[in-house]
Amino acid sequence: MVTQQDVAKKAGVSFITVSRVINNNGYVKEETRQRVLDTIKKLNYYPNHIGRALHTKSVNTIGVIIPAPAHVTVHGTDYYNLLMAGIEQSTATNGFDLLLSTYRFEDPQTDYLRLYYQRKVDGLILITPNLKNPQIGDIAQQHIPCVIIGDRPENMAISYVDTDNFRGMQHLTEHLIGNGHRRIAFVKGPGNARNAGDRFDGFLQAMRQNNLPLENDWIFEGDFAPESGRQAMRKILALRDASLKLPLPSALVCANDLTALGALSEAKNADIKIPEQMALVGFDGIGATALTDPPLTTVSQPLFDIGFTASEMLLNTLKDPLRPQENKIFPVELIRRKSS
């Protein structure tokens, strides 16, 4: 295995000079610096990660903490893939590595800070965390470098990146109302997720502003997973079958696209024609929605840009720990397709 001493000998410089080049610390003539870098490349030398971390007090790694509903894999969804693609482009450009950790919505004791306290990462990106977790307060109080995606901690000095979930869902519901729908059902997202709550509130706002009734039997709990949509569709059909006086809702709004895909699957199994018998819409803008039959109307979020921006915010904080909190709210776009 090539060592730092081997690089120094081959480049004709001291061990200290190689160390200064590797750590970008201290003065080295440009000609000498380039000779050392060329030697490092030629010898295929990689600095000892542990030793470098002890010297610089940095591991050049960002931790990304991702929730995952039961029965859904992180790498199996465009939502997380696109966020991670944006984060990865930012970190790679800046010479940082990524360490990914997942948890389940159902676990209220999720340890968000383990990677940081173990010094495995320099900072954290939390995707839709449970803001009731006491560790969120620890982040602010201990000034832990962190950016939150998909939620907005109030009265805390923690940077976040989010989208206009409320207005996006309001516009989506108004789109259905504009198409003549009056009997509209809704499948929620996780109760501890701010983005899910904002979307439901946007739906309620559109219904109330248009003086449309809310049928309690048509409001369903969910967790952003396809099974939520399947269960909601089964319950809708069961209600219709149990009482012939209760018609099908003319439209079903799902809090995210995965839920809508599950509902579409169940509708096909029951020979419910979309959109002839029931319009169906989702939220997120994942790629699969363009490939379904019929293609799903959805609200598109700029997921790549969200991930990239969150990473840039965190890296800027690592460079300047006194940098003030930053917040960014991205607009969303209604994508009209044949399902509505």
Q: What do these coordinates show?
A:
This is LacI family transcriptional regulator. It comes from Hydrogenispora ethanolica. Residues 2-56 form the HTH lacI-type domain. One of its GO terms (molecular function) is transcription cis-regulatory region binding. The protein is of the alpha/beta class and 340 residues long. It folds into 3 domains: 4-56, 434 Repressor (Amino-terminal Domain) (Orthogonal Bundle), CATH 1.10.260; 61-163 and 303-331, Response regulator (Rossmann fold, 3-Layer(aba) Sandwich), CATH 3.40.50.2300; 165-300, 3-Layer(aba) Sandwich (Rossmann fold), CATH 3.40.50. It is 42% helix and 16% strand. The chain is built from 12 helices and 12 strands. It is elongated and about 90 Å long. It starts with a helix and ends in a 5-residue tail after the last strand. The relative contact order is 0.13.
